[in-house]
Amino acid sequence: MKIGFIGTGIMGRPMALNLIKAGHELLTWGRRFDTVEPLLVAGAMGKGTPAEVAASAEICFTVVSGTSDVEQVILGERGLVHGVKPGSVIVDMSTIAPSATRRIAAQLEVRGVDMLDAPVSGGQAGATQGTLSIMAGGKTEVFERVKPLFEIMGKNIVHVGDHGAGQVVKACNQIVVSLTLQGVAEAILLARKNGVDPTKMREALLDGYAGSKILEVHGLRMMNADYKPGFKVKLHHKDLGIVLDNASENHVPLPGTAIVAQQIEALMEAGDAELDSAAIMLALERLAG
Amino acid sequence: MKIGFIGTGIMGRPMALNLIKAGHELLTWGRRFDTVEPLLVAGAMGKGTPAEVAASAEICFTVVSGTSDVEQVILGERGLVHGVKPGSVIVDMSTIAPSATRRIAAQLEVRGVDMLDAPVSGGQAGATQGTLSIMAGGKTEVFERVKPLFEIMGKNIVHVGDHGAGQVVKACNQIVVSLTLQGVAEAILLARKNGVDPTKMREALLDGYAGSKILEVHGLRMMNADYKPGFKVKLHHKDLGIVLDNASENHVPLPGTAIVAQQIEALMEAGDAELDSAAIMLALERLAG
């Protein structure tokens, strides 16, 4: 199938490569040549604008950073919307505000173009191995149409509701991840200050009710002070902004998430935007003095 | 082996029954006959005081509620200490303050009696199935001596350090559990207020970085407003008291844990002490109005 793919960063590139490996014909565009090059080497065709990509593709994926990037790439001057054919689908796999997704979907619908919001979880490793969790919002028939492509990029693929629901579920994902990170960091700190080996603590907790993927993976990073990303603090910061904005729009109190957001703010202020978000441990250590 | 066992509540009773099933000779005592009766029916021998239990047993287990109960049963007027033979071991599997455990261990050591603190995680189900996580503090050789008995009651058994380390790790366990519960509750609330089905949300999150035992088990309880215990709010309240006291003694800031403790306080105040601690969802819903 002819597939448009825009966004060739830490997540998008391995996702696009998996589509090429599965035999699909990829069309791509990027602001900088060096980010697009690995895809061209793998056989993708480069185009001059997002609009040109859309003109030749049946389904277009976007995996960029924030709400404004998605709006630019889809609705901007040379955006997908100016080339896209009625009956085709735009699938945004970035993490953006649910309200923005709904707005973009409405604008595309007017032109006979379907949209899915399909943010992912699972990090660079999941993107490379094709084992991402994909949480998709939009019409059921559109989800079914794109599903075979999702199955190339991910493993746990769930249609969670109408437009925006994918982004809401991704927000929920970031809430749970944030608070679990905070819990693991606080536990490590308490163990250390009591002279107890955090490695033993993690070992004792992993199989019980305190067990989680975060304790397993990020717990180890925290203990080793290994903050090489992974998922960067600046993206966690962006995502918690989306979460708290949505919570505010909907009058939802999130006292726990707000505490974690403060730790992330402290990391941003300290110049640690490029570290892995397991650096919540570092923020807590600084607080502890 | 002749084993003393004191504490036949929701956790202690199934643990004791597993020891009897494994062929051990149990000696027990309880304040109320009805709590001890199921053990007597299963073949345990009842004694008139904890001291009498200790006099006939090689290893004595205590599984009671709080720090004062443990002190009473071990050091009190008719406590284990007044019957216990030098060379025997007292294993406290209750969840109490690490500092209290160290104090008791020191008092027993003077009389030639060894102690282990070995609190558990895994709830009533884990106690019944013999699949508890057991986190033990104390001397290595004493741990090795008791280990075969731990293996009858639990599955993941870790010697985490010296006296008190077991209680510290249990405190860490409660921190991680608390914040994960809070995260799952906040995620469910955000999903609902956005009109997204929390069931789909949970399904999408379980296999990714947000995945945890708490999301799996307590997430379901929260969605179904099923607050039948399980692990009661009043015990969670007691345990977070231990955590925050220890944190205060050691000057450890636990901002996330403190937030959850406030939700638990609200539940206690509302008369929900007997509900399962998944009722953190209920506290959050009330906050949301």
Number of domains of chain A: 2
Number of strands of chain A: 9
Q: Helical percent range of chain A?
A: 40-55%
Q: Characterize the quaternary organization of these chains.
A: homodimer
Biggest chain pair contact, residues each?
A-B, 75 and 75 residues
- The third-level CATH topology of the largest domain in chain A is Rossmann fold
Global Rg of chain A: 20 Å
Assign an overall shape of chain A: elongated
CATH class of the largest domain in chain A: Alpha Beta
- CATH-defined superfamily of the largest domain in chain A: NAD(P)-binding Rossmann-like Domain
What is the H/E string of chain A? EHEHEHEHEHEEHEHEHHHHHH
**Strand residues, percent of chain A:** 5-15%
Secondary-structure-based class of chain A equals alpha/beta
Uncertain stretches of 5 or more adjacent residues of chain A: none
Major beta sheet, strand line-up of chain A: 3-2-1-4-5-6
